[in-house]
Design a protein that fits this description.
about 110 residues; 4-stranded parallel sheet
Length: about 110
């Protein structure tokens, strides 16, 4: 989903458990990934980039594997430690492609 300024979360797709890929980019109003709480596996890439209002990744806490790239880049409000927390939760060995985490809020703290 690209350039969808009115998208604030992903509610309405909460029955999904597996995705072919997840790519959200330049969605200015996206604050939450609410709606993805049931997703346990992504067969392709996980790419979250240039979402300036995205605050956390807790909706993906059930994720156990990403077969492709794990990319969290240029999300101005997202604490970098939040992206690292999700990567640790999934496990680096459960990511099949490159891991890219940069351009997020390095100064923010995580609980």
């Amino acid at each position: 989903i690209w350039d969808c300024a009115g998208l604030s979360d992903l509610s309405g797709i909460d029955q999904l458990t597996k995705l072919g890929l997840l790519s959200l980019s330049r969605d200015e109003g996206l604050e939450s990934l609410h709606g993805l709480e049931g997703v346990t596996e992504i067969d392709g890439d996980l790419d979250l980039s240039w979402n300036p209002s995205l605050l956390d990744l807790h909706a993906l806490d059930s994720l156990t594997g990403v077969q492709g790239r794990f990319a969290m880049t240029q999300n101005a409000a997202l604490p970098s430690c939040e992206a690292e927390r999700l990567l640790d939760l999934v496990g680096r060995d459960n990511v099949g492609g490159l891991v890219l985490i940069y351009g997020n809020d390095d100064a923010a703290t995580c609980p």
